[in-house]
Amino acid sequence: MNELSEQPCYSAIVAAIEVISGKWSYSVISQLCQGAQRFNQLHRSLAGISIKSLTDTLRHLEQRGIIARKVFPTVPVTVEYSLTESGMAYSEVLVRMREWGINWGVKSL
Amino acid sequence: MNELSEQPCYSAIVAAIEVISGKWSYSVISQLCQGAQRFNQLHRSLAGISIKSLTDTLRHLEQRGIIARKVFPTVPVTVEYSLTESGMAYSEVLVRMREWGINWGVKSL
Questions:
Q1: If you classify domain B3-108 with CATH, what class do you get?
Q2: A66: pLDDT strictly greater than 90
Q3: Along chain B (109 residues), what's the average pLDDT of each consecutive run of 10 residues?
Q4: Where, by residue number, does the polypeptide cross the bilayer (chains A, B) (predicted)?
């Protein structure tokens, strides 16, 4: 059997599931995989997301260390969001999830 | 950037997330990684799970093709649960999730 059965590490799995629990988490991470983006860029790229949902999702991901927020002293101030190292590592998990979904998941729904 | 940004495949990711959405899904999959088990074995191994929760979780996982149910014509009938190929593939996703959680996740909670 694979190594999963030796170390349940339930809290580690819960932490991973928690990141993606927000409705827009995946979409924002997927967008930021394409590089750092400002709030308005993200809002334009994510059709159907409200300002509040985007604000909440960015805060959710920032609190979990998935994204970083950089403020530029322009007038008005500019804020740029990008994936952290943890966020880059998480996007690899998403790739594995998507691969499973494509190979097995979507048929079984 | 990694391949995630090229193919959102949102439905594939949703299918993967959906599997693990039940509270006990991870624990049941983790148990079955150790080999096929009967209902009572699972119930004994999963401290705190009710008969209803175990029944619901097994049905949830069976409906999504993660586990298979084998009925033996004993008296009384014996039912054995095991991971399918899709289930084995999904446990690899869980291993990646746990790795991320151990390396990055648990600190950021």
A1: mainly alpha
A2: yes
A3: 53 86 90 95 94 96 96 92 96 92 72
A4: none
User: Higher-confidence residue: A22 or B65?
Assistant: B65
From A74's Cα to the closest Cα of chain B, the distance in A is 27
Instruction: Please give, rounded to a whole number of angstroms, the shortest distance from the CA of B52 to a CA of chain A.
Output: 21
pLDDT at A77 over 50: yes
**Is-contact A70 A79, C-beta < 8 A?**
yes
A68 touches chain B (CB under 8 A): no
ipTM of the complex: 0.81
* Short-list A109, A81, A71, A85, CA closest to A24: A81
Q: Which two tokens stand for residue A21?
A: 């629990």
What are the residue boundaries of the structural domains of chain A, listed by start?
3-108
Q: At what angle do helices A25-32 and A85-100 cross, to 10 degrees?
A: 110
Beta bridge partners, B69, equal: B81
Residue from B93, B104, B17, B6 nearest A93 by CA: B93
Coil vs helix vs strand at A59: helix
Q: Rounded to an integer, what distance in angstroms lies between the CA atom of residue B96 and that of residue A96?
A: 8
Q: What are the C-alpha distances in Å from A67 to residues A17, A28, B19, B40, B98? A: 16, 10, 26, 44, 19
